[in-house]
Amino acid sequence: MWSEDGEGMIVSVASGKGGTGKTLVATSLALSLKDKGRVQLLDCDVEEPNAHLLLRPVITHSEALCIPVPKVDDEKCTYCRRCAEVCAYHAIAVVPKHVMTFSELCHGCGACSYICPEKAIAEEGRKIGVVESGHSNGLDFAHGKLNVGEAMAPPVIRKVRELANHDGTVIIDVPPGTSCPVVESVKNSDFCVLVTEPTPFGLNDLVLAVETVRQLKISCGVVINRAGVGDGKVEEYCRRESIPILLTIPLDTKIARLYSNGITLVAGMPMWKNDFVRLFEKIGDIVHERTGRLER
Amino acid sequence: MKELVVLSGKGGTGKTSLVASFAALARNKVLCDCDVDAADLHLVLQPHIREDHEFWSGQVAVIDEDKCTQCNLCQELCRFDAIHDFKVDPISCEGCGFCSHMCPAEAVNMKENMSGHWFISDTKYGPLVHARLGIAKENSGKLVALVRQKARQIAESDDLDYVISDGPPGIGCPVISSLSGVSLALLVTEPTQSGIHDLERVLDLCRHFGVPALVCINKYDINEDNTRKIEDYCLSQGLRAAAKIPFDNVFTESIVKGIPVVEHSRDGVAKSIESLWQSIYWLLEG
Questions:
Q1: Where are the domains of chain B?
Q2: Which end of chain A is more exposed for a tag (fewer CB within 10 A), N or C?
Q3: Which residues, at least 6 apart from B249, have a Cβ–Cβ distance to it below 8 Å?
Q4: Cα(B90)–Cα(B82) distance, rounded to whole angstroms?
């Protein structure tokens, strides 16, 4: 797995609440580590990917993301209805002498095609998004974009996760929320950084995010962004739950302006680089301690 | 009865604060929180829960160890990588039932999934329909559809004029569920490159579903060059930026106090929000 300096770790950056600064943290963390070894940033917020706006990567590979949907051969079909019976998503309906498929409801499980006694159902790809990879300023980069109007983000996220480097550090920018897109993005990471803000909204959604990562058995720590506004309840909660606060970023119009112009924090204010390096060292210590404990 | 949904694409632009203010400004309405996986509107509206219902949705596969012959077929067939060592990971399972249909030993059963709760509550501003999706659960789109349906039913039975919904971030399944068939979408953006990018995608989504949209630029004075870019973009799309709201700590202060911005402050920001509500009102009535 990872070496002493934390290289080889997969660190996800999530939040529950949107707009707390996940992308700001993920991009600056990745950029701060790249002098020490291979680093890759994966933007798994495929509904609204933003990391590329700050990193301006050179895209070298682009691949359409298709999910398999059924294609019924009318010549072979005997209208036996087996396919409609097995489909859990009501994506196939059989009416007299015709099979209707609703590909936007299909999850691509393959049951209809496998089960059809006449072998009348083939699968064809339906494009729901695109996955792109490349590099930016010494970082490896990959992200996905869900097509507008498509509902299912998880298959696109799974594809982005498949592009993860097997050596070096991987930083994952996670979409907001606590449901399936978040699980798909955070799953199998070694550590999850939860970015929040010191307000009741930030706290409410942080609690949900902590429950999510705990259910996935992933250790987490908190970054408090826009510190100085709001109240002290996020810190109280972290103390009570023994969740380490890894970094505090103040409310600062200069930081907000940099972000608004698509400039990463460490590019615009290089003194922050050490803070992110230390943040990563703290994560390394926590992960090593946990694995040490598990091994003993 | 008219339905308004407040969306943004990007999270954290101020959707919930605006909806809470509309709750205080609008008459004869039911409120609805469509952000079911990180709901926050209740923190401002302080609801008294009147009804608490379980949300059962979808299924998950369970392998009966006693019947399982460890033939491995289920593991080979599963496209969601949800079966390992003859056990189903309920978080990865998409409930397709393929394994259950194919198991030669009939050892895989499909179990109904309790995916969360939905509530009908009273607030001092009127009824609120809201929900809490279970942690790491699927089907948020179905829960959103349910919450909206209940809100519309209340509006009809109580003869209310508006359903005002707080939408989730993004453009995927729960957003589509909150958006389809509404009378108007208010898109809240901020003058950052991310805000602009995400606005474009959520506006495309509104077009895709034929929903008219109105734009509001929050924290407009953080970057006035970008604000002008958003205004130009809106014009090029035949839209109007209906309001520009300055950055102000009263947003955060009112969240901390648990009251709508327009009740916390009477000037500046509150005035902009009031005139935004007037624009929305005329559009809904026009």
A1: 2-46+130-285, 56-114
A2: C
A3: A229
A4: 7
B79 and A109: CB-CB below 8 Å? yes
* CA–CA gap between residue B184 and residue B181 (Å, rounded): 9
Chain A: closest CA distance from residue B237 (Å)? 17
Distance of alpha carbon A140 from alpha carbon A41, whole angstroms: 6
Tell which residue, A41, A290, A277, A82, has the closest CA to residue A168: A41
Q: What is each CA distance from B174 to A31, A88, B146, B264, in whole angstroms?
A: 33, 19, 11, 31
Mean pLDDT, range B38-64, rounded to an integer:
96
Amino acid A254 reads K
Give the DSSP letter of residue A36: G
Q: Would you kindly state where each structural domain of chain A is located, as residue ranges?
A: 1-38+169-296, 66-127
Choose the mutation target among A23, A143, A148, A213 for the interface with B, i.e. most B CBs under 10 Å. Answer: A148
Which tokens hold the place of B171? 């453009």
* CB contact B201 to A (< 8 Å): yes
d(CA A75, CA A97): 11
Is the Cβ–Cβ distance between B172 and A151 less than 8 Å? yes
| Beta carbons of B222 and A261 less than 8 Å apart | no
In chain B, which ranges are continuous DSSP H helix?
15-25, 41-45, 73-77, 98-102, 140-157, 173-179, 193-208, 224-236, 250-257, 261-264, 268-285
- Which residues share a beta bridge with B243? B216
Cβ contacts of B210 within 8 Å, gap of 6 or more: none
Which residues does chain B have within 8 Å of residue A216's beta carbon, measured at their own beta carbons?
91, 136
The class of domain A1-38+169-296 in CATH terms is alpha beta
ipTM: 0.94
To which residue do tokens 């101020």 refer? B14
Q: Which residues contact B240 (CB under 8 A, 6 or more apart)?
A: B214, B215, B234
Q: What is the share, in percent, of chain B residues with pLDDT greater than 70?
A: 100
Give the model confidence (pLDDT) of B113-157 as tens digits. 999 999 999 999 999 999 999 988 887 899 999 999 999 999 999
- Looking at domain B2-46+130-285, its CATH class is alpha beta
Beta bridge partners of A247: A223
Tell the residue number behind the tokens 């097995």, with chain if given: A86
pLDDT, tens digit, 9 for 90 and up, residues B147-201 = 999 999 999 999 999 999 999 999 999 999 999 999 999 999 999 999 999 999 9
Q: How many residue contacts between A and B have a Cβ separation below 8 Å?
A: 187
Q: Is B182 helix (H, G, I), strand (E, B) or coil?
A: coil
Q: Which residues pair with B32 in a beta bridge?
A: B129, B165
CA distance B206 to B186: 10
A48 vs B201: CB contact, 8 Å cut-off?
A: yes
CA within 13 Å, CB half, B153:
8
| CATH architecture for segment(s) A66-127 | 2-Layer Sandwich (3.30)
The verdict on a CB contact (< 8 Å) between B37 and A47 is no
Q: Which of A233-237, A259-263, A290-294, B79-83 has the lowest mean pLDDT?
A: A290-294
Rounded Cα distance between A87 and A199, Å, is: 44
- Residues A296 and B6: their CA atoms lie apart, in Å, by 52
Q: Which of A256, A270, A249 is closest to B192 using CA atoms? A: A256
> Could you tell me the fold of the domain covering B56-114?
Alpha-Beta Plaits (3.30.70)
